[in-house]
Amino acid sequence: MIKIAPSLLSADFANLQRDIERVPNADWLHVDVMDGMFVPNISIGVPVVKSLRACTDKFLDVHLMIEKPERYIDAFAKAGADLLSVHLEADLPPAIHRALDRMEENGVKKGIVLRPITGAEAVIPYLKRGLDLILVMTVEPGFGGQAFMSDMLPKIEAIRGYINQYCPDCDLEVDGGIDPATAPLVMKAGANVLVAGSAVFGKPDPAAAVEALRSAGV
Ligand code: DX5
Ligand code: ZN
Q1: Helices (H) and strands (E) in the chain — how many of each?
Q2: For a tag on the chain, would you pick the N or C end, based on fewer CB atoms within 10 A?
Q3: Where along this sequence does the record place binding of substrate (predicted)?
């Protein structure tokens, strides 16, 4: 089943609750955490996740674009994230495994993220230990509103193959430049969770935009 995860990065930060209420049909809410180091931009942190938790029951899918994410797993879990995802490029493999261990200890779902430069095969050791989600970036992380990188499609297909082989229940999410034109391409390649920021909150009717993504390519 396809899940649509509107990215709050494109919402109005002074009116997050109002904007969440505009997408009652969203499956998940995608929350972009940026530290100004791993990516050049700075977005939101632990207190905002805590406030979001208090104003919605929706599944909070928290994408950590931060250096050495192991340091912050406990804090984001306690703030109320349902799933945390960490970039493979944000630390050395043993530290990424420790970050995933901490997610398990905190009872949150665990995910890994790949920048465009990182190859599909990098996911294999993590799938072997068990994952809830792999996120394939289809733009360079850091900003909303960028153009979809179609050269990521073979990587999505390859990772879908690895998921089927090693950890079939793992979700495959894509993030960056997803709109009704690119959604069918990523779904065909094997993605089942679609993040969209500007294609949802940049539209006059965000709920209709969620449905447009869900039915794209059907
Ligand atoms: C970018 C973020 C995305 C961003 C996507 O680094 O990870 O979640 O909000 O924005 P769009 O859908 O506008 O490309
Ligand atoms: Zn994101």
Answers
A1: 9, 8
A2: N
A3: 7, 63, 142-145, 175-177, 197-198
Looking at residue 83, what is its pLDDT?
Answer: 99
Summarised one tens digit per residue, pLDDT across range 152-177 is 999 999 999 999 999 999 999 999 99
Q: Domain map of the chain by residue range?
A: 3-215
Residues with CB under 6 A from ligand 1: 7, 9-10, 30, 32, 63, 139, 141-146, 175-178, 195-199
Q: Would residue 101 show up in a list of annotated catalytic residues for this protein? A: no
**190 marked as part of a ligand binding site:** no
3-215 CATH = 3.20.20.70
Which of 35, 99, 102 has the alpha carbon at shortest distance from 67? Answer: 35
Banded pLDDT at 106 (limits 50, 70, 90)? very high
What gap in Å lies between CA 185 and CA 191, rounded to an integer? Answer: 9
